[in-house]
Specification:
A two-stranded antiparallel sheet has the order 1-2. About 75% of the residues lie in helices and about 0% in strands. Helix 6 runs antiparallel to helix 10 (about 230-260). The chain is built from 13 helices and 2 strands; from the N terminus they run H-H-H-H-H-E-E-H-H-H-H-H-H-H-H. The longest helix is centred in the middle third of the chain and has 40 residues, at about 155-195. By secondary structure, it is mainly α. The chain folds into 2 domains: about 1-90, no CATH class; about 110-314, no CATH class. This is DUF2232 domain-containing protein. Keywords: Membrane, Transmembrane, Transmembrane helix.
Length: about 325
Amino acid sequence: MMINILIALAAGCASALMFVSIVSGALISLLLFYLAPLPLMVAALGWGPVGAAIGGLLGAVGLAAIVSFPYALAFIVTIVIPACWLGHLALLARPAEVETDPPTLEWFPVGRLVAWMAGFAALTTMAALLTLGTDGTTINDGLRTGLQRALSTRNSADADRLIDALVAVAPPAAATVAMLTLTLNLWLAGKITATSGRLTRPWPDLRTTTLPAMTLAVLSLALGLSFVGGVVSLVGKIGSAALFVAYGLCGAATLHTLTLTVRHRGFLLSSTYALVLIFLWPAIALIALGLADAVFGLRQRYFQRRSMPPPTIT
């Protein structure tokens, strides 16, 4: 019991220090900031979400005492709550509907974890923007001022156009980064915990990752809201960006399935991911593939054409 408490405390302190390192301005601090949820996620998956939550709250108390209360509150909202809740969901299980001997468990589907991560990415991004103001004009002015200060641009027509373009793309870009960061941290936490032997659930088949059917309706609603204007438009753009990333992940899972029998499959997959990392825009193809799978069931049709039993959808 004492070891669990010490591990939770160490995880909370490590996450808090990684989170607050961004104030140093060093380049390495940006990497530490993005990996701040990792220690708490490892603690949640390996030693339970309750202990991780206690460690995170103690880390927040330390931030409030050493830095400031707003930093502590931001740490709780953006790091502690998502890390502990996702860890809790990942460990949820129930008896399988089909009775087997010995009895088997149905674990919380990975697709629903991805949907939760999209929700957290959208909420934390919107919460950060609301610190700049409560209406669209004030938020955009705050973003414009911050970008002008960061870029040190002089007043000119070209500089103004650049700033306006960055203000327009900043909210969805922030949601995209938040979504990718949560996904990477949870995957790394799962790998670390599984390697240490502390992960109680079996490693899922990520090729079968499927978002809930309602997600497509939510994406349609978010896209519609993005054309309304004001704060509602920001909500729509942020939600759409997070869900597009989620469908991009499903597109990657679909690609892994559809290329099972392709020669030089490893080269094809590695080339695809290299193009996405280098040029970014090829990710649109993965998003389109994920959306097509959600609408037309590409993976199910793939297994039906080959008379293969499809794996259990997660």
